[in-house]
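Record 1 of the preview.
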Amino acid sequence: EWQDAKKCNYLISKDVPSPMGAGLSAWLSKENAEAMQAQKGGEVYDWMGLQQHFNWLVEMRYRGLFPQTYI
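->
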């Protein structure tokens, strides 16, 4: 079932497999995202926080502070 991305919460964890290799998973509730975070580590974001995080990564890559494979 499709969900509104703006209403989801997101976990980025290197210990959560994802198709594009970013360790990104979406959760309908913050509580479920935090429960998985407790098991796998990582950071939980809402939609705006996720956009800010990826914008920061792109900026750091542009400045040469991260290798291309990090993003």
